[in-house]
Amino acid sequence: MRVFVDRKEFEEVLKKAKIAAEKRANMPILNNLKLSAEEDKLSIYTTNLESFLVMELPARVEETGTVCVNANKLTSIVEELPSLEVHMKLAEDKLIIRGGKSQFKLVCADPSEFPEFPDVQCKDAIPSNLLLKGISKVGYAISKEDTKYALQGMYVANKEGKLHFVGSLKPVSDLVVLYRQTSNFFPLTTERGVLDLFLSQVGKDKKPPKK
User: Fold this and answer.
1) Which of 2, 115, 134, 191 is placed for a possible disulfide with 152 were both Cys, Cβ 3.0 to 4.6 Å?
2) Which domain holds residue 81?
3) Are 64 and 37 in contact (CB under 8 A)?
4) Is 187 domain-assigned?
5) Which residues make beta-bridge pairs with 4?
6) What CATH number did the domain enclosing 191 receive?
C-alpha cells in the first residue's frame, strides 16, 4: 500500500473512528482501524461488534492495499505531523507514516483477523439532523441494563409517510414522530451504537439538540 491523504481531513476522520473503536483485552484486533486504499479513496473501518463504522476520504493511491493499525497510536501520530499531506507506505509488517521531515513506523495487525462487516443495502437515506434529533428525543428511554438486551436499542420505522423513532424502558416508553416522505426503513440500533453514532457525528464537545 502506498497512499497520500490530506492531513487535516485524515485527522478528523481518525478522531471519529477512534470513538467507535473498542478496548477489549480479549479481542485486541478491535483496538485497530482497518485502512483500505483503492482507486482514488482511503476507507477507514472500525467496529466494537455492535456498531460498524466506515468512512472514506479522497486520496492519491499509488499502490492499493489493506492494513490494520492501532487506532490511538495512528491518531496521535497524525495529530503531531507538521505537514499538510500524509504519506503512508506498507513495508513488510510495518506501516511507514511520513509528514514533512517526520517519519513513524507502526506494527500492523493481520487484516484477515479484522471482523467482517455486515452487507447492508440502503434504499433511502435519513438526513443527519433528522436522525440526531430523533436520537436526542428517545435516548433517555433506551435501557442500559444488560439483562434487557432487547430494549437496548432504538427502533426506526416509516409509517404512512412519517418517520417514527421508538425507545422503550419498561415501564417507560417514548415515541417521537418526525415527518418525512421516505421508503420503508426498519433498522434497529443498539444503545452503544446510537451513542457512538451520535458522538462521531457531532463531536464530544457539542451538546445534543434540545427537545
Assistant:
1) 191
2) 2-113
3) yes
4) yes
5) 60, 87
6) 3.10.150.10
Q: Are residues 92 and 192 in the same domain?
A: no
Task: Give 157-160 contacts, CB < 8 A, sequence gap 24+.
Answer: 157/184, 157/185, 157/186, 158/182, 158/183, 158/184, 158/185
What are the E-state strand segments in 51-141?
52-58, 60-63, 65-70, 85-91, 94-99, 102-107
83 and 147, same domain (yes or no):
no
Q: Which three cell numbers stand for residue 203?
A: 463531536
Q: Residues 18-61: pLDDT tens digits? A: 877 766 657 889 999 999 999 999 999 998 887 788 999 999 99
Does 10 share its domain with 96?
A: yes
| 149 and 170 Cβ atoms separated by less than 8 Å | no
**Which SS3 state, helix, strand or coil, does residue 187 take?**
coil
Instruction: Say if 60 falls within a structural domain.
Output: yes
